[in-house]
Amino acid sequence: MGGRTRSGGWPARRIRFDRPGLRRAATTAAVALTLLLATAAACAEQRAAPPPSVQQRLEQSSIWGQPVLRIGVATNEPLMGEVRNGVHTGFDVEIARYLAASLGYASDKDIRFVEVHTDDRLEFLIGGKVDLVVASLSYTEERAKLIGFAGPYLVTRQSFLIPVAAESRLRTLEDFQAPGVDVCSSGSSTTESELARRGFAVKLVEDLQECVDGMLSGRFDAMSSDKTILAGFRSQHPQKLMPVDLPLGAIERICVGVPIGDTALRDVVGHFLKESYEQGRDGGTSPWLTAYNKTLGPWYEDGTEVTQPEPQDVPELVDFDDKASPR
């Protein structure tokens, strides 16, 4: 029977091997494998590459080679930034000293403390008059368009301070908003913006000491600012001034101000704030805690225990054991 094989099965089909097509497929597979291996090698190399060091970022910053570090601080805010017997002191100042020492400026001889007021802190940074600002500087989105921030190193809120004699008539937000009630605050502050938004009768001053003097003389009914600043003024007049803790404004994140284009300096400052945070997070001592207990702690939140907040957006850097001076 035609077409049958001798074994009785159907004729075997002949399969033609397209050798050029096979070569193309093999080539494509080889190229794909090469690319895959190259990608894997690149990823492995990227994973293996160590992060930059503190020293490398420091050398990329604007302070590299400077013999003196210029830090803007307040001189009129008790417990935060003030001058006593010719010496700068306060919580902000101690944080500034810690950062300066970490950056290689080990003593006050290597630091130039520059007096700044609330309304000229940004101006001093933008104009290059200071390298850092450590002066109760709250983060806001508007300010972040003009300067850089590292931190926060303290979280607080706005509040009020009043004469003890006014306790019976100033208890609620409505009491402070009543006609004839004059609330004193500083210009260009987050407190000023919040008070204006809520319709308070605000009397603006350049130096917050004027608010205190005005309350003690009967010219102002109250003052409003960060609770840290109010705690400082209360510590000077504990029998005459008292806090009124009312919800006002958003949480204030107190940060270190740096020039907006100096990301290297911001990274290094953030690194050392984070280092202090890590030292104190398990209940141990830290530069932050030492500064707080030495200055603000006994008066802030009536002595309630406060911890350092975790700094945000801190890149991983390889630290050095011996703090190298950038000079």
UniProtKB/TrEMBL annotation:
Q: Which InterPro entries match?
A: Bact_solute-bind_prot3 (IPR051455), SBP_3_CS (IPR018313), Solute-binding_3/MltF_N (IPR001638)
- Cellular component terms (Gene Ontology): extracellular region; outer membrane-bounded periplasmic space
> Pfam families this protein is in?
SBP_bac_3 (PF00497)
Transmembrane feature ranges: none
Coiled coil as UniProt keyword: no
Known Gene3D superfamilies for this protein? Answer: Periplasmic binding protein-like II (3.40.190.10)
Tell me the domain of life.
Bacteria
Domain Solute-binding protein family 3/N-terminal, first and last residues per copy: 68-299
Q: Where is the region Disordered?
A: 300-327
Q: Which SMART domains match?
A: PBPb (SM00062)
Instruction: Name the keywords, alphabetized.
Output: Signal, Transport
Q: Does the keyword Signal apply?
A: yes
Q: Which Gene Ontology terms describe the biological processes this protein takes part in? A: amino acid transport
Q: Signal peptide location in the record?
A: 1-44
Name the family the entry cites: Belongs to the bacterial solute-binding protein 3 family.
Q: What is this protein called?
A: Glutamate transport system substrate-binding protein
* Originating organism: Catenuloplanes atrovinosus
